[in-house]
Amino acid sequence: MRKIDLTNFQVATSETARHINRRIALSIIRRHQPMSRADLARRSGLQRSTVSAIIGQLIDEGWVTEGASPVSGRGRRPRLLHLNVERAGILAVDLRPVTTRVALAGLDARFLMQTAWPTPGTPEEFASEVARTVAAFRKTDPGTVYEGMGVSLPGRVDSAGRLVFAPNLHWRPVDLKQLLESSVGLPVVLENAACACALAELWFGRQPDDVRHLVAVTVSEGIGVGMLLNGQLIHGRDAMAGEFGHVTLDEDGPPCSCGKRGCWEQYASNSAAVRYYQGLLGGAAAPADPSASAATLKFTDILRLADDGDAYAIETLERMARYLGIGIAPLVTGLAPQVVVVIGEITAAWDLVGPIVLDVVKRRTLSSNTTQIVPTDPATQPRLRGAVTLVVQQHFGAPNVA
User: Of the four listed, 96, 168, 224, 371, which is most buried by Cβ atoms within 10 Å?
Assistant: First the structure.
């Protein structure tokens, strides 16, 4: 039960009920397609006349199609309903400090085309580059109807779409939603990358339907945490809930982009791993791989070197894994999620780092802990998929009513 916020509420109307019933019908079809109208009425509990009216509207709008009927016995054969995944295109943007990736996807989060480019230094340049990319997509496939754009980003945006905290981007606070919408001419939904990934696990992931408490940990240039508790995404005051990456582990530790020292992400992020490996190389007589000492060293290079048996790279990943476990343990104890999902390039080395993470968490949490800690598959591009989910849930999720 939630207390009604008497300072900010919306009175339910008959239109509210139609809105909810429509999303229920769409979600059931999405989950159980193909299905007949009678099946939909039984699963939803809605009257058949209500189902017929909703389906008629959804077919007219192109959200639902009627497919071939199965061969049956006597009587009229039912027409089966399918979600029209080709109805609309969803633009997905994965904004990261170094590289931005933009994709076009269907309602099923299947990517149809994508591209990537270096992230510009200012929000205005970023919006212009996104607009150019969207224009190129439209030219390639002029028949696609664009439903909207979802953006996952390494920072926090408030309920109005204003970027309020993004230390790794080094951008000032800006109304990024308005900037993008005016540039591309489409509705835009923005969300912290970890939160978007948590939603993607709920909508498109491998988790069972009964998972209601999930924590997503994104490991990249920094560390982000998205919290899905009781089936609801938690944002907190000023949309700042989940900034565990900036919890101090050591007040005398390395300086962080947030202005403090010794934050979790200064020990367990990709950037921290690169710095640690370079430090090991600095004290070595000769690096195992000449390319590893270059200024352009990337985290993916460390993964490759570890796979090739490089001792420094293996030590770097083992240290990173220990600190990941140190940071995840309080999340498990304090939030009691059913599952913690780890997202990022580090999951490619899960055979090495996974056992270390699990061991550290086990030693630092209650003996009754049953939380699963699992990696995502990098091939699914979870951050892009999360951006798609931001738009999908606008049509399939529960309406935001009091």
Answer: 224
Say yes or no to pLDDT of 286 above 60.
Answer: no
The reply to whether omega before 34 is within 30° of 0 (cis) is: yes
What secondary structure does DSSP assign to 18-77, as a single string? HHHHHHHHHHHHHHH-SB-HHHHHHHH---HHHHHHHHHHHHHHTSEEEEPPPP-SSSPP
Looking at 36, 63, 83, which one is the last position of a domain?
A: 83
Q: What is the pLDDT of residue 239?
A: 87
What are the tokens at 13? 């109307």
Which domain does 18 fall in, by range?
14-83
pLDDT digits (tens, 9 = 90+) for 334-353: 999 999 999 999 999 999 99
- Could you tell me if 152 and 118 lie in one domain? yes
**Whether the predicted pLDDT of 289 surpasses 90:** no
| Same domain membership, residue 179 and residue 153 | yes
247 and 263 Cβ atoms separated by less than 8 Å: yes
Q: Structurally, how many domains does the chain consist of? A: 3
The pLDDT tens digits of the residues spanning 37-58 come to: 889 899 988 888 888 888 888 8
pLDDT in tens, 186-216: 999 999 999 999 999 988 888 777 889 999 9
How many residues are listed for the chain in this entry? Answer: 402
Are 196 and 293 part of one and the same domain? no
Q: Helix or strand or coil: residue 312? A: helix
The structure tokens listed for 359 are: 């061991």
The counts of H helices and E strands in the chain are: 12, 14
